[in-house]
Design brief:
By secondary structure, the chain is α/β, with parallel strands linked by helices. The chain has three domains: about 110 residues; about 280 residues, no CATH class; about 210 residues, 2-Layer Sandwich (Alpha-Beta Plaits), CATH 3.30.70. Helix content is about 40%, strand content about 20%. Strands 19, 20, 21, 22, 23, 24, 25 and 26 form an eight-stranded mixed beta sheet that branches. A six-stranded parallel beta sheet has the order 4-3-2-12-1-11, with helices on both faces. The radius of gyration is 45 Å and the shape is rod-shaped. The chain starts with a helix and ends with a strand.
Length: about 650
């Protein structure tokens, strides 16, 4: 259970959770449509970057009614006679199918009878209607063609923001289902290739042309959120930028200057591109730097037809999007990776570099998938990646600052520089919830105290006493730190130190070295006291003997206190034994066996780590205060270097 909790509260798991939470916030924003404009702009960007076919598509020819045509003809709308004449020329040239993208619901005299005759005699001609809106307002097709397959609606679907990205195949209302102008033209062209639309065998609600099943657009496909998905829609796969199809003017057609081979066996669309006749739309190409920012309605229909022909004849794949659940997972993955990225980043410049590299890689991946006809979100994962990486890095930086402050507060003044760096490198093992993680380890504890300090302090000037005490404690601390010990506490003239903390020593050789460092430190403390006796004015403050107790064994280490004051310490039976060994120097029967500046007693476990180079004396089993069982005690006489 403890191991599982430590894993769940580890830094990698926490930054992963941060990344996922940031991702959820991004997904939440996306679900409310806040990111839709940016996602659609990114979609337009990929459309513009996609390579265009080499040269115009020769299967589709546009007969455009230009501003110059209107000026030369001197009329708008064009008369039925003029339209009938143009259609007769095209049928005579052998056009496979002809689309008239001009409303003919009313007579435009003269020539209505001629126009009706041409429309009735040539089933390859398709005219347009406007599908009725919710109020029933629309524009019907020519009366003579009612009930035939020669009328298709030419409604253009415009997204919020005025961009055309989708097209209709069918629309339904209470009166029935209507077919789009573009689809009728494509179907009539494909009939000559032996291809007719059929239901998909696996999904009968979907239409298949050739071997390609056309996916149906739904309200939340791609990066759309709650969009209008009425009828049968598909995402338009534009076949290029401007002038993707051969174009000729109406004047060229009527004057006979256009070669009939240009339109023979082709799809021909007649429509207006005149500026005075507003029939222009914005597309994903409109945000490019080209001079022409809009595309005429007839050109849009030509792109729709081209897409259908490519799907049927060239097995071109339509643009598809991932299921909504996979798109959510896609964003979560990038947010999680962004959070994990922060684990190895401490420099702002490195963070910026890797975040930028990640966004660049995401751009390339999204573009590559788009070329394979898959549309996946770009802005949402990029935003999750950048925000998660930034937030997680900020959180880690804050944690590191707090941990470093904590560790330096606890250890910096009482350990060597080498030990301090080792502690910082192993901070993951030490710090938990703003405290040093409590652990049970094997360590060596040292207590040192002066004899007669209390009695001496009563007769010394307070200022001189504090100055001497600070000098004494500083000297003791320097010796302990030099022997890789950690000062635990000061109590009057007494000092407690731990060896083998805060990092757990698991190897026997390391525990042995800690024990020898502690004993060697004790002997060095004797020498330091002798130096102090020589440096300080003895007549003012006489220094007595020094008592040192050292014990090795299991202790529990951690922090005690509150947020205002924390202290790193060790507790346990071994700590009590070390303290009692130091007090053992007060026993007259044992103190009489010591000579020199003081006494140094160790327990049996510490003594076991001292080799033959150490000179020791066995005191024997001793009943220490507060313990029922006796402890075998040894007195250290001198070390290997003495």
């Amino acid at each position: 259970m403890t191991s599982l909790r430590s894993v769940l509260w580890s830094t990698p798991v926490r930054v992963l959770v941060i990344g996922l939470l940031v991702s959820l916030a991004v997904i939440f924003s996306r679900q409310f449509g806040l990111l839709e404009p940016l996602e659609l702009a990114a979609y337009d960007w990929t459309v513009r970057l996609a390579p265009s076919p080499v040269g115009p598509d020769p299967r589709i020819v546009l007969i455009t009614i230009t501003e110059e045509d209107l000026q030369s003809l001197g009329q708008w709308p064009l008369s039925d006679e003029l339209i009938a004449r143009a259609l007769e020329i095209l049928t005579g040239y052998g056009a496979r199918t002809i689309g008239l993208d001009l409303y003919r619901d009313r007579e435009v005299l003269p020539g209505r009878e001629e126009l009706n005759a041409v429309l009735s005699q040539h089933s390859e001609i398709v005219t347009v209607m406007k599908f009725p809106d919710q109020e029933g307002k629309g524009v019907p097709g020519p009366l003579v063609l009612q009930g035939t397959d020669q009328i298709g609606f030419n409604d253009i679907l415009v997204d919020r923001g005025g961009i055309v990205r989708r097209g209709f195949l069918f629309l339904e209302n209470q009166e029935g289902t209507a077919t789009s102008f573009s689809l009728l033209l494509a179907m009539k062209y494909l009939e000559h290739e032996g291809i007719v639309p059929v239901p998909d065998p696996s999904h009968p609600e979907l239409m298949r042309i050739g071997t390609t099943t056309i996916p149906r657009f739904y309200p939340n496909d791609g990066s759309y959120v709650g969009s209008d998905a009425k009828g049968y829609q598909l995402l338009v796969k534009f076949s290029g930028k401007q002038e993707a199809f051969p174009q000729f003017t109406l004047t060229e057609l009527l004057n006979g200057t256009m070669n009939q081979a240009v339109v023979k066996d082709k799809v021909v669309v007649i429509g207006s591109s005149a500026e005075s006749v507003r029939d222009d739309f914005y597309t994903p190409y409109s945000r490019s730097r080209g001079k022409r920012q809009q595309m005429s309605g007839m050109e849009l229909h030509a792109h729709f037809i081209n897409q259908l022909l490519r799907m049927a004849l060239m097995h071109d794949r339509p643009i598809r999007s991932l299921p909504e659940g996979l798109e959510v997972c896609w964003v979560l993955i990038w947010g999680g990776l962004g959070g994990l990225l922060a684990l190895g980043l401490f420099s702002p410049w490195r963070l910026i570099f890797f975040l930028s590299a990640g966004v660049g890689g995401l751009l390339v991946f999204v573009y590559w998938l788009f070329l394979a006809s898959w549309w996946i979100p770009l802005i949402s994962p990029a935003l999750a990646w950048v925000l998660a990486g930034s937030v997680a890095t900020a959180w880690i930086s804050k944690q590191y600052r707090q941990e470093r402050m904590l560790l330096m507060q606890l250890f910096s003044q009482h350990v060597s520089t080498e030990v301090a760096e080792t502690i910082w490198a192993a901070r993951e093992q030490l710090v938990q919830d703003g405290r040093i993680r409590p652990r049970k380890i094997t360590a060596t504890v040292l207590f040192v105290d002066l004899e007669g300090f209390t009695a001496m302090a009563e007769h010394v000037d307070p200022e001189a006493l504090m100055e001497w005490l600070n000098t004494y404690l500083m000297s003791m601390t320097n010796v302990i730190v030099a022997h890789k010990g950690v000062v635990d506490d000061f109590f009057g003239d007494g000092v407690k130190a731990n060896f083998g903390v805060p990092l757990e020593q698991r190897q026997g050789s390391d525990i042995r070295q800690d024990a020898m460092n502690a004993v060697q430190c004790g002997l060095a403390l004797f020498k330091e006291i002798q130096c102090l006796n020589q440096r300080l004015p003895q007549q003012a403050i006489p220094i007595g003997r020094v008592r040192i107790g050292i014990a090795t064994g299991s202790v529990v280490v951690g922090t005690v206190g509150n947020a205002q004051r924390l202290k790193y310490t060790s507790v346990g039976d071994i700590v009590n034994i070390a303290a009692r060994l130091e007090q053992l120097g007060k026993d007259p029967s044992i103190a009489s066996r010591t000579q020199g500046i003081g006494s140094l007693f160790v327990n049996e476990d510490t003594h076991a780590y001292l080799d033959a180079r150490w000179v020791t004396e066995e005191i024997g089993p001793v009943n220490l205060s507060g313990r029922q069982e006796p402890v075998t005690v040894y007195r250290v006489v001198r070390g290997p270097s003495e």
